[in-house]
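RETRY 2/3 - previous attempt timed out on the joint model. Re-submitting the same 968-residue input unchanged.
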Amino acid sequence: MTTINPDAIKVILATDCGSTTTKAILIELIDGHYRQTHRGEAPTSVEEPFADVTIGVINAVTEVAELAGRRLVDKNGRIIQPAKGDTGCDIYISTSSAGGGLQMLVAGVVRQMTGESAKRAALGAGAIVMDIIASNDQRRPHDQIQRIRELRPDMILISGGTDGGTTTHVVQIAELIAPAKPQPRFGSDYCMPIIFAGNNKAAPLIEAVFDESVDLAIVDNLRPVLERENLGPARDKIHDVFLEHVMAHAPGYDKLMSWVDAPIMPTPAAVGNILQTIAQQQSINAVGVDIGGATTDIFSVFGGTFNRTVSANLGMSYSISNVCTEATLPSILRWVHFDMDERELRNRVKNKMIRPTTIPQTIEALIFEQAVAREALRLAYQQHKEFATTLKGVQQQRTVGDTFSQESSGQSIVDNMTLDLLVGSGGVLSHAPRMNQTALMLVDAFQPEGITRLAKDSIFMMPHLGVLAQVHPKAAMEVFERDCLIYLGTCVAAAGSIRPDRLCFAYSITGDTLNESGEMNWGDLRLLALGVDETAEITIEPARGCDVGAGPGKRVQKTIHGGTVGIILDARGRPLVLPESPRESVARWVETLDLYPQMAEVV
Amino acid sequence: MTARTTHRVRRLLPIPGEVLVKEGDVVAAQDIVAETFMPGDITPVNVANILSLPPGDVAECMLKNAGDTLSVGDPIARTKGIFGLLKTTCTAKVAGTLESVSSVTGQIMIRGEPEPVRVQAYLSGTVTKVLPGEGVEIETDLSFIQGIFGIGGETYGRIVMACESHDQEFDADLIKPVMEDCVIVGGARMTGKAIARALDIGAAAIVTGGLDDEDLRDFLGYDLGVAITGSEKVGITLIITEGFGEIAMAERTFELLGSRAGADASVNGATQIRAGVMRPEILIPLTAESRAKTPAKGRQDGQLTRGRPVRIIRDPFFGLIGTVGELPPEPQVLGSGSRARVLEVKLDSGDSVVIPRANVELIEG
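RETRY 2/3 succeeded.
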């Protein structure tokens, strides 16, 4: 990899090698600003008959090259560097989640403490956590060993114990893993990497437990004391091992690794990276979601703390049937405002599962898929909130003043009232025919409270920008602001229980193009137009029992941002509870936001 | 689907072992071609806890050493007692070999007997390649039918036709006791009762056009969340060729299966619709006689071109079959409001419909 001089960079090429598609984007310096100019895609070529990831990369890059009128690939099938005139690029970077991404097994002594810290480290590094083995996970030791034998992880992370504390339990965990001899996914010549990030006093004992059949690395304890996590060293080691072992065994990656100017990152790690950068630079709390065919990833930054979860079987095609099972069909159908035959729907869901690349042709099929998306996102966010907590097992000093406080350790740090920015990406959100549909899916599923800006990732560019932020933060930020996000607008939502026909809040909005005041009763939903790059001042006077950010009944004044959708005033209450027969309400909301204007013609 | 093709399967052991056949050998589907032994199950026993000892004292109380063979009830460790009395003994609850003794945790590991793992040929044919220590490749000329979804793993049986036409519903009354151990071919949807009856008489597999989600749920006892199947222990393999719901088997598929009635087939219901897609399959090796009757056809490429037969794979026209008509290059607005590239499908009924290109699949054969 070459040393990069940021000032000399004029053309950047980035690829993201996904499980099914490899996406390439071109970023160019235009009039002193970095802009994303062209994109191309091609099927990922990790599987047979190609078994070489670079074929898909070159195909995607060739498409970009044709669109851009810039020669990017030489006659030997290599990316041309550096840029000269209309040829080549200055840097090339890539992310990867091909071949199922990075799959890990994690272990800790207490599941809710070191087990969860290890899981957080693995998820933060972009991995899929296949299982957590812990002393208290309710399984008998031989069942745990059996489970380890069945899984085929890419690597294992072992944590447990605080530094200098008792060593017995964490060694016991290692003693379960060692004889199980977990088989890696990439064939028998692959030496299973094991990272130990537990009690430093136990490190030599752990070394004695494992033989040469594994590649053991020891890093700083990820929970050196109960009150603090230290995930950085474990996360960095996971990245190193990902490159040295996992990537090196994936077809064609040795070649790809020699092409890139920055280490290849697992796709979710790159997305997490850019979201953290944005939250930090703008001092905001942010949530990002990527809903795919098989999984839903949620990233959050609250108070500077980053969390990521992967809901492995909540997705819109491969896993659509599982969403229906977990959410139940009645929960999905509550978002649909017309009759649908349940038996036929069940068959349709299964048909989508077995033919995942089909797309909804009719408006009814689209409405049903968007209803499924609401439930998939809701469930994934629920899982995220349960995982993103303050550290569990930490003793808290209490005073007399805390007598009536119910707070304990392990509280969710996800607070919708303090959420500033909600970003959606993934097919069903990014490719919805109308932006209003995307906005209401996000609002219904995430139920933001107070004042929250809504956006979507235009072409799922966040992975590319996540890697770019590591080598050229200025370019990454400029493209993120100008080309990556499409701002949909702002949601102003009241928290509190619904009181039908009673006042929820009064509002007054003043701006260059929007000057409006009015009242919202509980249950109301309203859409006001405020364009992209426009702002307005809003004053909200909530009724008793209604909170829009400053506390129940307390006035809020703030600047709000417009977008392609505008301002959504939401007095449907939080948590959002749909009436027992929701059809009429949902039909009203659909009409208010003009979600499906073609409905009258088609149905 | 193809009436005649040369097909190759790779049969591999999960861990290194011994290959029992050599290149050029002719094998039958159920012959064992490779064998290995998986290390036995591990049972941890916390001797320190059982004998109330500090972990560091366990080693000197052990009556057995690492590598010793243990039978159930064998004493493994014994405390020294008080003045030689009141000794406590820890006995083996499982048979196996003592693998390790930990002085850190006081835990010992007993490894059970190795478990044999045998790999069958699966396909009757010729061994074309031996991968030493790993497995073999077997090749043969056969009729190949790929399903869209299946349940249950590898099985074998004689092809027997139960329905008279490709669109006849496959119900229980069509199943006869003589169909035991057979691969029964139906037409349209297999009913829940038909599955139960086939299981009852001991059929190897059922192949039909469709299946109702509700019947699948009743049969499995749970709702299938993701399409990763093949490991179910349900006593029968089910394969559908078209999809879920009331749907007839493609006529060409039904005719091909009918033309091979009476032949032995290898069938696998395993389906994996993720990276590395795996679909269920019905492999019917050709005999010398049937080979002569069935000319080999070159495989067509996967391009949508005018006149090629296609199947519509999504509502509102799900299951209909026709041929490719116009292929407008520009994306068009669908009823859903999305923009997508479309094609015209000329249906067998004579009507034409416009469908997103993503919602059709080419019919081979």
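Chain B touches chain A through 53 residues (CB under 8 Å). Closing ticket.
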